[in-house]
Design a protein that fits this description.
160 residues; alpha+beta; Nuclear Transport Factor 2, Chain: A; six-stranded mixed beta sheet; 3 helices
Length: 160
């Protein structure tokens, strides 16, 4: 009798256990995929910072969405055309740009929000020093087979 009861319990439980293991594997795969996307986006942020220091606009051109909108620390807003024109004109000259404290939050498989801190040394073309720490938020979307920034915002961290 005990053997029949154990067999019946196993028959009932087996599909649920198998389903649970399949769901666990799917969740693990999703976490691993999200982890690799998160690493890719953090690397793109670092590559973008390195390109900005070099004054290389190729990265910006490739990784800025057509419908980009940016909000600078002073509250100014610019679209892709204005941002690219300013970058090509050298309106900002960065000596260094170090990123840390980055966090990636996925919003589906093709949209992510990256937040972090940038510590920069730099000047505007006018000579104004813009060195300091900034908190930034970038919205990345996967379009045309690559990640592109759709929105950017930065806020200067007040000195303590």
């Amino acid at each position: 009798m005990k053997r029949i009861l154990v067999t019946v319990v196993l028959m009932i439980a087996a599909p649920a256990l198998a389903s649970s293991q399949t769901n666990d594997k799917k969740a693990d795969a999703k976490r691993n995929n999200n982890s690799s996307v998160e690493q890719e986006l953090m690397q793109l942020e670092k590559d973008g910072a390195a390109a900005a220091v070099k004054g290389d606009t190729t990265f910006l051109d490739r990784h800025t969405a057509a419908n980009y909108i940016g909000t600078d620390p002073g509250g100014g807003v610019e679209d892709r055309a204005k941002m690219m024109a300013g970058a090509k004109a050298g309106n900002i000259k960065f000596g260094t740009m170090d990123l840390d404290g980055m966090s990636v939050r996925m919003a589906g498989k093709d949209t992510a929000v990256v937040t972090g801190r940038a510590t920069i040394k730099g000047n505007l073309k006018s000579g104004m020093d813009i060195s300091g720490q900034y908190r930034f938020t970038d919205v990345w979307v996967k379009q045309e087979g690559r990640w592109q920034v759709m929105a950017w915002q930065a806020t200067k961290v007040a000195q303590q």
